[in-house]
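Hi support team,

I've been running sequence recovery on a batch of backbones for a student project. Most finish fine, but this one hangs at about 90% for roughly twenty minutes before it completes. I'm not sure whether the input is malformed or the queue is just slow. I've pasted the structure tokens below so you can try to reproduce it. Let me know if you need the job ID as well.

Thanks,
M.K.
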């Protein structure tokens, strides 16, 4: 299928209107509309429902968009590969990481890449682990560093490069601070701060606290810094990575409680697409990650 047709389709999903798609592709609105009808006729399906609010995908359109988005991205990757090749490896590397790996690894990795390849363009996306998995699977990112999610994507390679431990973090003034052995019952009696509902951290916490209804006893926040600040007030508790609270523990602002529960040990994983063609840059990035991990 003509790649321009697929681009028009994917952009129409994004913009919901013909005019901005036509402008993006340097086409006329009728031409964009023709491309969409052409796809529908070729597959014998209807892609969109139209209304005053613009274009909305049908169920069939949702399925086609899943694959069209990947095909369009692969075309972009191929073009980028050729451009980089002709430019003598002056290109770009797209990295992604969930919170903890971004904090631990990415500054050093980016420093090493930029020092060795000063002309290369480097980008970093910091999102939840499931979001990074999806972006790497769609080849919108070259490599990802995530905390394990237990829901591996069959199109990706997963390499364990380390482990992390979650601990119970709280203020020295909290009522549980003096308690030696903290049980699940103790935790459930307190307001727990959680780090965003779709994060891998939450997956482990909710598994450990089962049967626990998050909406009753928790506050969900999207910032680890905000969680740590709220903990200092002495009214809440949180499960956080040891690496995130090292400075606060050393300064005495927070304390940590080890619950000795193996479910709170998590793998740190490097992920990349199984279909990816490995380049010298890829080998360098992977080697840098392996060195930092060990």
């Amino acid at each position: 299928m003509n790649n321009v047709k697929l681009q028009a389709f994917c952009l129409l999903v994004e913009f919901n209107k013909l005019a901005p798609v036509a402008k993006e592709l340097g086409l006329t609105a009728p031409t964009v509309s023709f491309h969409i009808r052409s796809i529908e006729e070729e597959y014998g399906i209807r892609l969109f429902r139209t209304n005053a609010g613009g274009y909305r995908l049908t169920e069939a359109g949702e399925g086609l968009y899943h694959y069209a988005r990947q095909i369009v991205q692969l075309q972009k990757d191929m073009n980028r590969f050729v451009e980089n090749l002709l430019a003598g490896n002056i290109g770009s590397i797209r990295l992604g990481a969930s919170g903890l790996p971004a904090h631990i690894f990415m500054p050093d990795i980016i420093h090493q890449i930029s020092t060795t390849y000063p002309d290369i363009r480097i980008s970093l996306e910091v999102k939840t682990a499931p979001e990074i998995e999806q972006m790497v699977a769609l080849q919108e990112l070259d490599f990802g560093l995530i905390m394990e999610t237990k829901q591996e994507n069959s199109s990706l390679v997963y390499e364990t490069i380390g482990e992390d431990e979650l601990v119970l973090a709280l203020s020295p003034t909290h009522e549980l601070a003096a308690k030696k052995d903290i049980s699940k019952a103790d935790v459930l009696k307190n307001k727990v701060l959680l780090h965003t509902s779709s994060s891998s951290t939450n997956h482990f916490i909710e598994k450990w606290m089962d049967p626990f209804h998050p909406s009753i006893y928790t506050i969900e926040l999207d910032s680890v810094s905000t969680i740590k600040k709220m903990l200092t007030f002495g009214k809440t508790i949180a499960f956080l990575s040891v690496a995130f609270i090292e400075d606060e523990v050393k300064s005495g602002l927070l304390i940590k409680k080890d619950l000795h529960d193996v479910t709170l040990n998590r793998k740190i994983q490097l992920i990349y697409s199984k279909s990816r063609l490995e380049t010298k840059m890829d080998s360098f990035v992977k080697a840098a990650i392996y060195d930092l991990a060990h």
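--
Follow-up from support: It reproduced on our side and the slowdown came from queue contention, not your input. The chain is about 45% helix and 25% strand. No action needed from you.
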